[in-house]
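Reposting from the mailing list since nobody answered there.

I have sequence plus structure tokens for a pair of proteins and want to know whether others read the tokens the same way I do. The first protein:
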Amino acid sequence: MADVSEVESKRDQLIFWLVYSGFIVSGLIAISVIWGVLYLTFDGQVDDNGKVIIPDVLQNWGGIIVGFYFGTFVSLIKDYMKMK
């Protein structure tokens, strides 16, 4: 029969990998959105005034992504400090 500390260790490892993989996936999505906006900025369509046309959906995503990462990081640190 497995020792309680072994079960807790395996559970902690699983939680770590779930959180870590979630950060990797969301990071890849964030990088792809940012690269998409950069691509449109440098190689996108230009209107009559010479201004680059970026879709409204993508214009404010940089701030949203930074806010998401900052908010998630702060809440993880808060939870970690409660445990210690």
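The second protein, same order (residues first, tokens after):
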Amino acid sequence: MAAALFFSISFILLAVATYTDLRERIVSDKITYSMIALGLLLHLFLSFLTDDFGFILFSGIATIGTFLGAMLLWKLGVWAGGDVKLFTGLAALNPVNYGVLRDLIGLNGALFASIHLPVFPFWLFVFSVFAMFPYGAMISLNGIAKNKDLSEKVFAEIKKRFVHLAAFSILVAGLSAVVAAMRLDALFVLPMLLAIGFLRKKISAVVVAVVFAFALYTDYVSALQGALMVFLPLLFLFLLLKLYFASREILAENVKITALEEGMISGETIVEEKGKVKRLEKAGIGTIIKHFRNNNVDAVRRLIWPSGRILASSRAAGGLTEEQIRELKKLVNEKKLENKLAVKKSVPFVPAVLIAYILLQLVGDLVWNFFL
């Protein structure tokens, strides 16, 4: 009964928060503060009612722990203040996974059981992040369909990677057949893959052809099935990631600094160091890998921890403050800064949290039970 109450409150308030986030891009403090207050007070009442103070203890631990973790993400610029309050409220109401929907549909089994530890907020965060991938992919598909240049660029990249993924899948299937014929453990495929990765392209292409030909000769059905079992999941994952990262380009636009408004999210980092104003290159994964390959560790450090006074940061999820905008406008007037700034359109995050919450209520602590 208590679990159903906590679920109902969480679901209703999350649904309302999702609606306001989609419509107005804001979640009212009344919703988040109500979550925190109701979660703590109801767990306290339940503790007195059952003479078991584990309820309020778990709720308190989850609330404080989530608040501290969320505040760290806010300090790092990953989250906005509303995200901190929302997750803290959900932690107060759901210190553990009550699995209401799981019990409702009768999904039994040890894998779906709820563990008696206040770790539900952590898994909610993890699932929310993953829920953003298909959401970002849908935004990308819509944007790509409307942008001819971007669609050509994306499809060219997909075509290129399609060939690479197919070659890799064929190689894995071929090496698996070779390892099986030699009666070795399947794990021997991994060092073989690494060794082939150091070969020249022409030589590695010959190796791929030879080992897959051997696999087809020994058992062509198993060889084709094995290649497809590797290829299809990799292709799906690549497409999902490609569309998700393409959404960053779709959601970016250049805005005149003189037209900036408070809360707009900067898509680039601008610093002032020794009297000079600099626009830093984007700290993307590709850029960081490139610097590591060139053994330029100092460049990576500057990307992650820029020196000087930060005027605008691409990692500040809370957006630009009035003070930052005034400073940027002043630099534009002084001709020290070009009158434009890459701005990111914010994507509603609460719908992903709602999806993650419902999914976790269905599967219980599946991930925890599977790995531990």
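Reply #1 (J.P.):
I read it the same way you do. Residues 287 and 293 are 10 Å apart (CA to CA).
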